Amino acid sequence: MSAEGGTRAIIAALLANLGIAVTKFVAYLLTSSSSMLAEAIHSVADSGNQALLLIGGRRAGRAATSQHPFGYGRERYVYAFLVAIVLFSLGGLFALYEAWHKWSAPHGITSWQWVPVTVLVVAIVLESFSFRTAIKESNLIRGRESWARFIRRSKAPELPVVLLEDFGALVGLVFALVGVGMTLATGNGRWDAAGTAMIGLLLVTIAIVLAIETKSLLLGEGAELAEVAAIERAITTGPEVERIIHMKTLYLGPEELMVAAKIAVARCETAEEVARGIDAVEARIRAALPVARVIYLEPDIYQAKNAGQPGS
Fold first, then answer.
1. By the 8 A CB rule, do 37 and 98 touch?
2. For the chain, domain boundaries
3. Which CATH class for the 225-306 domain?
């Protein structure tokens, strides 16, 4: 993923959400609409989430230390997981609580009736621009993948998070617009509460999806099948390696893949020949997959009884 593209999408979403949050709070103060309050808190949560993603990206760029010899690339996953927690608690659970409160004591919108509708329409326009930016940046790296597959398999958390947040924001705004519109048309405040409840359920669902996907990244994911095949071809293409005895991969961060493999070399090769061969293989791996930045190759003599045993 392009780090610059992810940053552009985050900044676009942050600026949009800050402006939208202010207008939603003003609309809530004027109308006491629970949908407007839920949406205002939603925008605040989204703004905080984008700030977390920016902080995570900055901290992930720190140089490796003796305590963290592989660097801090996976810190981006930690902050993405925090985003899911904030979206679930501050966004989703608050909206559900506010919906229950409004349903228990419903009241219509009797003053400044044009304000919430105007704010929601303007917010939809602004969120659409933010969503468009996220889609544009994602399309640069998504290729022919479906959106669901892109979100599920992306090793960089920023664009999937912004995509889901912006999508949730747009759908939530539609829910709020329906709730407010029906409340204005009927005078029944429970429509407003229903819209708020739908916003809460939407945010909880998105938060759970984000948490599941980010947890997998935190635990550590290996290379995709196509990437593994490219690495295997790079290793076995030349004359230096007879076969791969076993190999493991691990993403140390969105743009840093570790490759560890035990390779079979010819019995008659000298140590100098083996070293030159390993250098050549490493160069081919990096050429085939530039994200493979940490490579460990262990030369060995192939023995069928030990094949596939990491400790052999």
1. yes
2. 3-219, 225-306
3. alpha beta
Among all chains, which residue has been given the structure tokens 């709020």?
Answer: 176
Q: Model-level pTM? A: 0.77
The string of pLDDT tens digits covering residues 62-99 is: 888 888 888 888 888 999 899 888 888 888 888 898 88
The string of pLDDT tens digits covering residues 20-62 is: 888 888 888 888 888 888 888 888 888 888 888 889 888 888 8
Instruction: Give the pLDDT confidence of 268-308 residue by residue, as tens digits.
Output: 778 888 999 999 999 999 999 999 999 999 999 877 655 55
CATH fold of 3-219 = Alpha-lytic protease prodomain-like (1.20.1510)
